[in-house]
Amino acid sequence: MHELSIAESVIDAVTARTGTANVKTLRLEIGQLSGVVSGALRFCFELAAEDTPLAGAMLEISEPVGEAHCRTCDRDFGVSDLVLLCSCGSADVAVTSGQELRILSAEVC
Amino acid sequence: MCLTCGCSDQENVRVIDPSATSVDPHDHLHEHDHPHSHDHPHKHDHPHEHGPAGAGIGAGLEPGTVITLEEKILAKNDSLARRNRDWLASRGIHAVNLMSSPGAGKTTLLERTVRELGSELAVSVVEGDQETTLDADRITATGAPVIQVNTGSGCHLDAEMLDNALRKLEPAPDSLVFVENVGNLVCPALFDLGESAKIVIMSVTEGADKPLKYSTMFHTASLVLLNKIDLLPYVDFDLDQFADAVHRVSHHARVLQVSATTGDGLSDWYDWLRQLRARETAPAQ
Q: For strand B197-203 and strand B254-257, is the pairing parallel, antiparallel, or unpaired?
């Protein structure tokens, strides 16, 4: 359950920019292959944000789907997990999307 | 504090030198007896607007203002990890991050590795566990320097913890540092420590399907050590299925079969470590 560390990292990074201003909405990007579960992050965020200017902030989380590129046959395809096997049989596959863990923006109130 | 799993922040983390005569149980991470300089890689270009005199960051922000951050959530950890990596590289030190589930044999492997490689090169160890110095005590018995990090209820090591452990450990130049992460096949995968290589250790008693079930962890590994192969005659473990599963989640990872108890396969592991050191200490072209 690393989502608490993730939530704390989010709060530290945002308050470094927004300081004491209360935050109403926070936009995050959590890729579907990132290893972070959005539901667990929401739960941990609520706890970690208590007594901070981010308490009660609404989390808007976009979850980019997994995409990969096969270095053998040069094909791009969607992946739902990190079991990366191209239909050509190659496992020499690079993840091109879905591993994002980013803070996009914060709206103060 | 996470009510689901008890995971907590750095408040309860303790960095313990088991060779010290007394241990301060509140030896928190934020003490700064740094043997190395502070070249903080983070930026200090806070883009806040200044409100009335004395007001802090954010005091002048109008309601509804949208602050664009566009930054990685783990930027702070990643930047500390880069600092660790630079600090280690500047001293010719290689650190390897050993990750596994609890009971896969990390400490037994380390005890034997330290004993058998210790005469060839300087090695030291950072032990990560939620509680106790039991593992550090086992390493101390081998004669190698060791620092124990107790994460409290934390489920992984992060770059700051390794930073603090290295300050106490003060590893010798051109040495090898083994970092034994908290036993956990999930959380440690996300946190770069600044290591030269991530190694996953799995034992044959855990089942050949684990690379598929814990793909994030195995995806990060450059080496997978399959431990306890002396038990293969007694367990239902399909080596081919395991090799295929590792290949599916980490195309580049090597797999070595070892037994830390009998010593089978360990010469391959030692060769891998020698190659790692040779490769990274080679002068830049």
A: unpaired
List the single residue in B61, B76, B219 with the smallest CB-CB distance to A13: B76
- Domain B78-278 of CATH type 3.40.50.300: yes
Quick check: A19 contacting B, CB < 8 Å? yes
If you ran DSSP here, which 8-state letter would residue B232 be given? Answer: G
Q: Where are the domains of chain B?
A: 78-278
Strand locations in chain A, DSSP E?
23-30, 58-62, 66-70, 76-79, 93-97, 101-108
Model confidence at B44: pLDDT above 70:
no
Give B-chain residues touching A35 at CB under 8 angstroms.
186, 189-190, 216
Q: How far is the alpha carbon of B43 from chain A, nearest alpha carbon, in Å?
A: 11
> What is d(CA B218, CA B210) in angstroms, rounded to the nearest whole number?
9
CA B204/CA B208 separation, integer angstroms: 7
Distance CA B1, CA B12 (A): 11
pLDDT band of residue B206 (cuts 50, 70, 90) is very high
> Closest partner residue to A19 among B59, B72, B219, by Cβ?
B59
Interstrand relation of A93-97 and B223-227 (parallel, antiparallel or unpaired) = unpaired
Model-wide pTM > 0.90: no
Name every chain A residue with its beta carbon within 8 A of the beta carbon of B1. 4, 47
d(CA A82, CA A67): 10
Q: Which residue in the block uniquely carries the two structure tokens 């195309």?
A: B251
Q: What pLDDT digit, counting tens, does each position of B241-263 carry?
A: 999 999 999 988 999 999 999 99
Condensed to tens digits (0 to 9), the pLDDT of residues B83-98 reads: 999 999 999 999 999 9
Averaged pLDDT for residues B233-244: 96
Closest chain B C-alpha to A74 CA, distance in angstroms: 16
Average pLDDT over residues A44-72: 96
Angle CA(B30)–CA(B126)–CA(B78) in degrees, nearest 5? 60
Query: Which residues of A fall within a CB distance of 8 Å from B151?
Result: none
Amino acid at site B115: R
